[in-house]
Amino acid sequence: QVQLVESGGGLVQAGDSLRLSCAASGRTFSSYTMAWFRQAPGKEREFVAGISRRGGGLINVDSVKGRFTVSRDNAKNTVSLQMNSLKPEDTAVYHCAANYELRVFMTPSRYVYWGQGTQVTVSS
Q1: pLDDT tens digits, residue range 82-114?
Q2: Are 33 and 100 in contact (CB under 8 A)?
Q3: Rounded CA gap, 47 and 107, in Å?
Q4: What are the Cα distances from residue 46, in Å, to 23, 30, 31, 76?
Q5: Can you say how many angstroms the Cα of residue 30 is from the centroid of all Cα atoms in its chain?
Q6: Sorting pLDDT into bands at 50, 70 and 90, what band is 70?
Q7: Beta strands 113-114 and 4-7, pairing class
Q8: End-to-end alpha-carbon separation of the chain, Å?
């Protein structure tokens, strides 16, 4: 069983930065492919970024390219999402997710483990 705990969310103004972290339990963190999803009220869960076991990152959402960066520290069992130049449309609950796949998938159903999420609110 893998437990994921997100942190780092909050209320910020447009243009500010936040760094989200996700701490994972277990001894085999380096075996997990990790991803960040977000869900705004009334909308479906959306893939934001993912990182493979070996550190290959994938940013999917065009609106965050150039602003968000995903990284992982296998020694600390953490994955992070650095979010710069935040916009009001980035407001959502951000979840980290994990699976044992070899590569990053953008479909939520491919992920087995999920954190409870952390709220990010960006005011204009």
Answers
A1: 999 999 999 999 999 999 998 899 999 999 999
A2: yes
A3: 7
A4: 21, 24, 23, 26
A5: 16
A6: very high
A7: unpaired
A8: 40
Kindly give, in sequence order, each residue whose CB lies less than 8 Å from that of residue 66, ignoring residues fewer than 6 positions away: none
- Report the distance separating Cα 17 and Cα 66, nearest Å: 13
Q: Where are the extended beta strands (E) located within 1-124?
A: 4-7, 10-13, 18-24, 33-39, 46-51, 57-59, 68-73, 78-83, 92-99, 113-114, 118-123
Structure tokens at 9: 């969310």
Q: Quick count: other Cβ atoms within 10 Å of Cβ 101?
A: 16
> Coil, helix or strand for 34?
strand
Tokens of 42: 């009334």
Number of helices followed by number of strands (H, E) in the chain: 0, 11
Please name the amino acid found at residue 41. Answer: P
Residue 57: exposed, middle, or buried by beta-carbon count in 10 A (0-12, 13-18, 19+)? middle
Which residues, 6 or more positions from 76, have their beta carbon under 8 angstroms from its beta carbon? Answer: none
